[in-house]
Amino acid sequence: MSPAASPNRALRLVIDSAPPSRLSLPSNPQIRCYPEAPAMPHIDNDVKLDFKDVLLRPKRSTLKSRSEVDLTRSFSFRNSKQMYTGIPIIAANMDTVGTFEMAKVLCKFSLFTAVHKHYSLEQWKEFASQNPDCLEHLAASSGTGSSDFEQLEQILEGIPQVKYICLDVANGYSEHFVEFVKDVRKRFPGHTIMAGNVVTGEMVEELILSGADIIKVGIGPGSVCTTRKKTGVGYPQLSAVMECADAAHGLKGHIISDGGCSSPGDVAKAFGAGADFVMLGGMLAGHSESGGELVERDGKKYKLFYGMSSETAMKKYAGGVAEYRSSEGKTVEVPFKGDVEHTIRDILGGIRSTCTYVGAAKLKELSRRTTFIRVTQQVNPSFSVVS
Where, by residue number, is the active site (predicted)? Predict the structure, then answer.
């Protein structure tokens, strides 16, 4: 057998036939076999943008004051059929952010908390008994491991008022994760499921059709995430939000923009791009209510903040970094910011101001009133870097 005809090589058939004008092949076509060319890498030349690449264009407005802007949203979820009403900003399910202490404050503002998965059932029950009004504004988080799922079952069975589930993995593209979402939907048909993370429309659609209600969008944009550096994988967050929102809304699903926000303006851009919810990590780190060790150096206070795939987190919860993987997060010291209430008011005030600039009386109207303009500079850097 010739090398070209080896069964271990893909073949393509080329038929020597008559010119295209002929309606039938010759009676004895010559058939030649060639090895199939290997698939080549593809480059998508469409420009993809991040929050830093754009500003919102102001538009005529009839609003007289920021106080006229309504930031409350109401949603009906596709699969759970559950209703939600609140300001759709979520504290990330990181142990330095998604704490019970954070949830107590955020629920006063009708904000949401994805509580990290490392609380025990006893801690959950204690929090639930002392803060029953907060339970409608938080989600119980889980990975895909069997121990995680067992604890999730215990929490949801023990505290039936908790109606939201946050299924969180670094790579939402795996078939295993899709099957896990299906299993959780079967087990909890009436609960609203958040699932991610992904950054492309086709995977948003698959997760929604598999039972998720809200898809977490973002790979690598977080302030303590190093996935893009370690793996080379990611997607600019603004474009990811726009494309994923379009896919989700076509199926009556919803999305969360997860990561990449460093200022109230970025949060507003995420909503303007079509995000139904915005999840914050770094912006809520470093507060009294945040997790993380408080350290003092040269008379200044700092709080540790780290990614959940960092070496710090893996040492804390898994005994270290497994030999087959690498750390995809970093640990930083955030200057202590005091009570998170002040940061929340600043974020909400910024979004209200955005709405007045573009003529949106309600947060619901912001995406319809948004026109992004590409820029090469966000702020005047003359005196300092604006935080």
Answer: 225 (thioimidate intermediate), 227 (proton donor/acceptor)
What is the per-residue pLDDT across 278-334, written as a single tens digit (0 to 9) for each?
999 999 999 999 998 899 999 999 999 887 766 676 666 766 667 666 667 778 899
Residue 73 and residue 89: Cα distance in Å, rounded? 10
Catalytic residue list contains 371 = no
In whole angstroms, what is the distance from residue 208 CA to residue 215 CA? Answer: 7
Kindly state the greatest CA–CA separation across the chain: 92
169 annotated to bind ligand = yes
137 backbone dihedrals φ, ψ, rounded to 5°: -115, 30
Residue 208, SS3 per DSSP = helix
pTM of the model: 0.87
Catalytic residue chosen out of the listed positions 96, 227, 343, 370: 227
Residue 33 designated active-site? no
Q: Is 325 annotated as a binding residue?
A: yes
Domain spans of the chain? 3-35, 71-284+363-374
Q: Are 262 and 223 in contact (CB under 8 A)?
A: yes
- Fold classification of 71-284+363-374 is TIM Barrel (3.20.20)
Is 201 annotated as ligand-binding? no
d(CA 238, CA 320): 34
